[in-house]
């Protein structure tokens, strides 16, 4: 029987074309199945439970211990204060030199490198892209790291907590926020 829609011997009627179509359909099915099963396999523990396992709040609520990175973080951005329930006040803005100088005045604390800072990004969230139960009232803006951009002496890396993107920024730009870090005590 001749297919009236495609000439005999055309791509649409050929065995390779049918196999390619079957393969595409199979890939679509596999992708759909993976999309359904991956959260069940990888996220067997709900995100809130994962955060509760990863993060430990200090008795006074001002610090967060991260068991994944073995770092301790200030719960609030610099300029904000912990009031027992959330971070209040306005997060201070710094240029890079000011951010480093400020960190130097905070005994035991420092500006995180870009990998440490990016470890706080929660890619399941946005605006802000951080767990706000652990780090409440985090500005949906960018934060300074201590990591220079190699080959570019006037640039360093920052993390935008609106969307979790790591990007380069000029050291003299004056609107970056700061979240301080230190080695977790006792480790």
UniProtKB/TrEMBL annotation:
Q: What is this protein called?
A: DUF1566 domain-containing protein
Task: Classify the source by domain of life.
Answer: Bacteria
Return the Pfam families for the record: Lcl_C
Q: What is the species of this protein?
A: Ideonella livida
Domain Lcl C-terminal: from-to ranges? 64-182
């Amino acid at each position: 029987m001749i297919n009236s829609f495609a000439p005999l011997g055309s791509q649409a009627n050929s065995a390779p074309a049918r196999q390619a179509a079957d393969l595409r359909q199979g890939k679509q099915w596999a992708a759909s199945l993976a999309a359904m099963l991956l959260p069940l396999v990888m996220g067997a523990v709900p995100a809130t439970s994962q955060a509760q396992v990863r993060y430990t709040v200090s008795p006074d609520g001002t610090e967060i211990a991260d068991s994944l990175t073995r770092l301790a973080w200030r719960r609030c951005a610099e300029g904000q204060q912990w009031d027992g329930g959330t971070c209040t006040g306005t997060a201070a803005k710094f240029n890079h030199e000011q951010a480093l100088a400020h960190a130097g005045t905070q005994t035991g604390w420092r500006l995180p490198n870009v990998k440490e800072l990016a470890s706080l990004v929660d890619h399941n969230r946005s605006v802000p892209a951080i767990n706000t139960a652990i780090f409440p009232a985090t500005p949906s803006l960018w934060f300074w790291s201590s990591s220079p951009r190699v080959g570019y002496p006037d640039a360093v890396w920052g993390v935008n907590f609106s969307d979790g993107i790591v990007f380069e920024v000029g050291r003299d730009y004056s609107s970056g926020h700061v979240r301080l870090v230190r080695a977790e005590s006792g480790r």
